[in-house]
Give the backbone structure.
Amino acid sequence: MCLGFYEVTIAFESREEAFALLGAQDEFLRAIGDAFSCRVVSRGDGLLISGEEKEVRRAARLVSELMGLYRQGVPITSHEVRYGARLAREDRADELHAMWGDTILVTEKGKAVRARTTGQRAYLAAIQRHAVTLGIGPAGTGKTYLAVVMAARALRARDVSRIILTRPAVEAGERLGFLPGDMQEKVDPYLRPLYDALQDIFGVETYQKLLMKGIIEIAPLAYMRGRTLESAFIILDEAQNTTSRQMKMFLTRLGAGSKMVVTGDLSQIDLPRGAVSGLAEAKEALADVKDVATAELTADDIVRHDTVTRIVRAYESYEAKKREEQQGENHFGNHHHE
């Protein structure tokens, strides 16, 4: 027996549990084996992990955390396996335990919502502790959905008396008069992601009732002007497409007993060329303002398909390379003119 050899057996409670943790065609089993320098094999109704003690303990800790998550009724996906493995490899399994053990809210259908990355956990903590939170990050990081979850939680706890959701209708230049139909029909295409999140959390019936009573209000940003929003949880989505003036107008609507969350992706600005994003400006201008927090999510916090993470990373490096080339050309052009 080689020096430092160590072995752990983990027993599954049922075949369903084994399948959930090992994945279809043992996909998760292979991912765990690849993540740690030890041997991970399926043995009947259990898992045998063997190799160098430190690595075996890390892998076993991950499996026990995944098992705990599954027993709480949470479906295990490749995100949980790969993200969990990364934290366990860095000896941060305690963070994993705290994150996975903390349910923020249970949806109408009984689905438990919890942070799925440490970045998401920091974002949720920022929302909880501050009057205004800027949530900035790429697509798939759960910025909007988690903001809506926190709004629903505040409403259920009676911390606020209503939820107000808004986005800039940038493609229409906020000139909604040019679109056919009534106000609701005009803004529907822009606000669809917000409806989807609310219906998922409250259920369609409760959501419709709250909407009818005005407890949930969904409106384009132009309709916020001149109002003071009190005892409300206000979410401004797609905020990278606000102008400087719109953002300032929105932030100054904050009234007593209210909370604001501003979400956006600074790599997806659709404003006319040369226009400054109100979100980019607010991030800098409000950096040291009391009770205002900025939570930045990254490609590491993407909880959609693994490929989305790879796509975001590829675009990030492509755009960085393009910027370098442009700077090089400008530098050459300047010297040439001299």
